Amino acid sequence: MNDPAPNLACDPPAESEEVNGGQTNGAQTHGHRRLGFWAMAIGSLGVVFGDIGTSPLYAFQVAMGQAAKDPVTTPAVLGVVSLALWALILVVTVKYVLFVMRADNKGEGGVLSLMALAQRALGRRTFLVFILGLAGASLFYGDAIITPAMSVLGAFQGMHDVPALEHMVTPRAITIFSFVILVGLFLIQSRGTARLALFFGPIMLLWFCCLAWLGVSHIFDAPEVLTAISPHYAVLFLVHHGLVGFLVLGSVFLTVTGAEALYADMGHFGRWPIQASWLFLALPALALNYFGQGAYVLKSLHWSAAHHHAFVNQDWFFVMAPDAMRAPLVVLAVVASVIASQAVITGAFSLSQQGVLLGILPRLTVTRTSETQSGQIFVPQVNRFLMIGVLVLVAVFQTADNLADAYGLAVTGTMLTTTILAYIVVRRMWKWKLWMALSMIAPMICLDVVFLAANGLKIASGGWLPLTLGASLFLIMYTWVRGSQILTEKTRRESVPVTELIEMLRARQPHRVPGTAIFLTSDPDTAPVALMHNLKHNKVLHQTNIIATVQIAETPRVPESERIKITPFSDDFKKLVIHYGFMETPNVPKALGLCRKQGVKFDIMATSFFLGRRSVVPAAQTAMPMWQDKLFIFLLKNGTNPTEFFKIPAGRVVELGAQISV
User: Fold this and answer.
1) What is the distance, to the nearest Å, from the Cα of residue 478 to the centroid of all Cα atoms in its chain?
2) How far apart are CA 77 and CA 252, in angstroms?
3) For helices 111-122 and 400-424, what crossing angle results, to 10°?
4) H helices present in 358-429, as ranges
């Protein structure tokens, strides 16, 4: 069908067409855009808001458990509700939705994307930005391990409140149920979740509607809970309760875990659909639910006082539901927790792909599980790592309450690094004046530091877990980057520049063979090890020789028109630079197909790819400690083969080995 728009623009139609056809088509186009926008908005519910949407399962209960260390009064309950509401408003709405999401890297978000954007804003790579990026990425992996365990355990704990099951459910049974769900979730990752993802949005829409319904149905039990919207209740609670108030603040932070996903998943849905979903659906539903839980606590508090009973902290989310609805609610909660887990697993896969391409992780196997959705990828090494970590947490902690103290520290650390990187972008890229940047960023950093300190009080009771995970992953990443730098510098010192090699070959011509040889190397200006070994041992040189390198830009994607750049060294030597963004999957043969547009033609079946396989051994004197040297060698040996990583046909590859010490 021909698009009528060009006709309307170039040739004015008859009056009847303009009135009937033109306006109808315009209305249809506008309607389709609106339909597509809200489809994206609902779709974002399943990916972006899964984690923060399941927070009501445990966040308010954990916070009230901390508040119960002091006598529980009406002002105390209102203070906890007010803290939860204002955490959602300040951290999620103001900081992320209205500010940080504007700092996008060509539409992409996330801590590594922001790191690349900050480096581009500074015009160079700095140690501070690099360390911040590594720290944020390391803590995100810790969050990716804790979130599935926390969400699924929190959902299954609702079985205690189902009348028919309350006497049958044991911690061991919950652990087994959680194991089954989580193992099944990780096993299906290799098959892709594109089809299942179609249902994530509608299911989470139903979940948020249930959150709102549960809250509204109990607000009238104690309408005074609505006064908690005033922030003075939160301030008074913190002032009057001292250390207990600070502990409650750390628990209240559980209400905003998952806020980083708003930013990290921006590239999948766009800023406006995510903002619309949050402002018009997710935030109102969460606020109503916390109001409802607070009202139910006030009702229970008044009843306890009237009957001279001690206040008992309960699983407020599930006890709000009628008895007949609790079993279906548990099922829906489990499904919602699985969706939340899937979202963070997908985020870990995406972060790993970015990390590999940005050079902070060794090469990992990345496979696409969908031909139409670029975000659908599978990284088997990361999947195994997450599954083992999650199952260990479930087995050790067994309940969401036990795991709660470990949850907030990883997220607060990631948020703080995001805020600092955002300051660099604001100052250097957006060119804000110092007072403007500080007036916006300083309160955010103060808020992050306060939450970090509040969660820091829980290091002994579980906060050590994300710190240990983050420190371990940070060490691995830093070792890989540092070891790669040392290896590159040593290789460059021992290599011959390509221009010098060409002059040497002119003086002493080797035997020439027909065809094309492509030598993959990280430094296209020095003679690759594979080329030197081919000349030394085989004593031959191909008719056409291409020194190729893959360079990763600090943008998510590179246009096809800028994919390759060919520079001739001589008649039979050319330098080929292939550019990819950090969100793309390198495919060298596909990129070579673009060479024809620049006048370089060759038959792929008459082309040989030469790769240098380096056998790295520890040196007697190294720039790194021996244990770190051995860690780097282990990572290097266990990285994905370059042939597989760059999608090169295995039958066209020649590998030439060399031993090098670092």
Assistant:
1) 19
2) 12
3) 20
4) 380-397, 400-424
CB atoms within 10 A of CB 468: 12
Closest CA to 182 of 206, 142, 146: 146
How far apart CA 92 and CA 94 sit, in angstroms, is 6
Treating both helix axes as pointing N-terminal to C-terminal, what angle do 400-424 and 434-456 enclose, rounded to 10 degrees? 160
pLDDT at position 19 is 36
pLDDT category of residue 11 using cuts at 50, 70 and 90: very low
- 240: number of Cβ within 10 Å: 14
Q: Note the pLDDT tens digit of each residue in 553-604.
A: 878 888 888 898 988 888 888 899 999 988 888 888 888 888 877 777 777 7
Residue 164's SS3 state is coil
pLDDT of residue 390: 92
Helical H runs in 253-363?
259-264, 266-269, 271-277, 283-306, 316-319, 323-357
Domains contained in the chain, CATH given: 34-482 (1.20.1740.10), 495-661 (no CATH)
CB 245 within 8 A of CB 238: yes
- 528 secondary structure, DSSP code: -
Count of Cβ atoms closer than 10 Å to residue 563 Cβ? 18
pLDDT of residue 532: 85
* Tokens at 175, concatenated: 């652990």
Provide the 3-class DSSP secondary structure of residue 540: strand
Backbone angles phi, psi at 161, to 5 degrees: -100, 0
Q: Are strands 511-520 and 607-617 parallel, antiparallel or unpaired?
A: parallel
Asked if residue 344 lies in contact with residue 261, where contact means CB atoms within 8 angstroms, the answer is yes
CA-CA distance, 458 to 251, in Å (whole number)?
10
Residue 539 region, left (φ>0) first, then alpha (ψ -120 to 50), else beta? left
The H or E element that residue 568 is part of is strand 564-568
Task: Write out pLDDT tens, residues 397-450.
Answer: 888 777 877 777 778 888 888 899 889 988 888 888 989 889 989 999 998 898
The reported pTM is: 0.82
| Alpha carbon 654 to its chain's center | 36
Taking alpha carbons only, the member of 364, 657, 647, 637 closest to residue 537 is 657
